[in-house]
């Protein structure tokens, strides 16, 4: 029953740390599950057809109704039910149904539980017990473990959102508390996220773009482990999730969160998450990349916050806003700032005590109608009205192909659009290793904690504004002398680029290049993948070269065929290329 073992990711993850990882491509467990399902479906049709043929002949010989002969005993009833349920599962699992009606696929797919019970009842001589019990026990243990760590039943897997950032090209970045349990996060792994108010059974995979040891300083002055994800607003679920976060940014959400009772809006200043002033209403357009953060209740005299605030104020405009302190009887405070330029802009520094579902009225008040209208119900008759972030549940991390990124002498990365996210943490890790002085890998070393000799980053995107997602990392790579020699970015833009004020040239493959004002070079058009793979592999004789790809099927197929053809050509030089493609399909 390999069909069950293929859907046991925790169990399979154990074998990734063994030499079997070089023989089997464990990240293709979903493909293996589908392949075995096709075989099982074909075998079921053959098995049922033979029973129908023999059953009809037997019914004719004894003058029995054809329909009755298949429903007269335990074997016939369980066999018919299994065949019908399996047919429903197969139809709901068709790609077109799965893509357009995912929830239909998800719920109908759980009929496999009924089929397993039917299979035990259908077995006449105990063979099902011998063949199914072992894999079924592994699958059940794996499923129970993942369920317990995902849903807040015994221990909490709720992630406290620390900050949100809206990038151009409809890309959203979220940072939240790291939730590790019985395993340490590794480069390139992914997690599954559930937003209960959008669907308690909807789990969506997202690659972790933060390094395993990444931390951020919170408002309490302490460093906290952070997980970070990026996602592009494309489907229905991501659109709902993005709008839900934007409502919090606007301060007009009265949703009551039963898990996280406190939502304090803030921002990130000099890489420190501080519950700072937030524009609530303004005639001016707010920064599209404005960063919002959730922070704990802090003391106004907190030295860490005061230091960050002083640095932020020092770099701000000389025309300071007029600020006054609003207090009430409970000594809760909030800062109301008004811009002297005339744009009505209400801001606040949230120092209020933590609120919960038992608060009948707001413990913050002022005579400023703009402040009250932005944050609380008029007249205070409907209780506290405070912007609340949605609760998110986290499952993972799960194993991914990028875990073997640092095992190769050289790596070639192909990414399309938001497919760059699996490789962001790897590039950040390279910067950390370069700054820590970790040596470069040689052909004789087999350790996986060394810096690769070369990393070729081939990133294809349509909109040049998507660069903002990786802009900081690319600039750090350019600024680091050692990392600049290791990482070779090959960026290709397929959409229009304003070249009126930019420098144009040609790359080594003849594509027109554009040098942006920030020094980043872009090639226009699509990359010549076959030529690039051959060229890059030729620069590393007697080496293992890893090829990683996160792109649409057409591009992934082209990369795979190019790697296959190049392997045959460079085998004489001792170069071997291994293909690793990201797969999040279900």
Structure at a glance:
InterPro entries: FAD-bd_8, FAD-bd_FR_type, Fe3_Rdtase_TM_dom, Fe_red_NAD-bd_6, FNR_nucleotide-bd, RBOH/FRE, Riboflavin_synthase-like_b-brl. By secondary structure, the chain is of the alpha+beta class.
Q: Total helix count? A: 17
Going by helix content, strand content and strand pairing, the class is alpha+beta
Helical residues, percent = 25-40%
The description of the largest β-sheet is: 8 strands, mixed
List the domain count as a whole number: 3
Query: Which runs of at least 5 residues are low in confidence (pLDDT < 50)?
Result: 251-270, 273-313, 316-387
Intertermini distance? 19 Å
CATH superfamily of the largest domain: Translation factors
Give the beta-strand count: 21
Gyration radius (Cα, Å) is: 29 Å
Average predicted confidence as pLDDT: 71
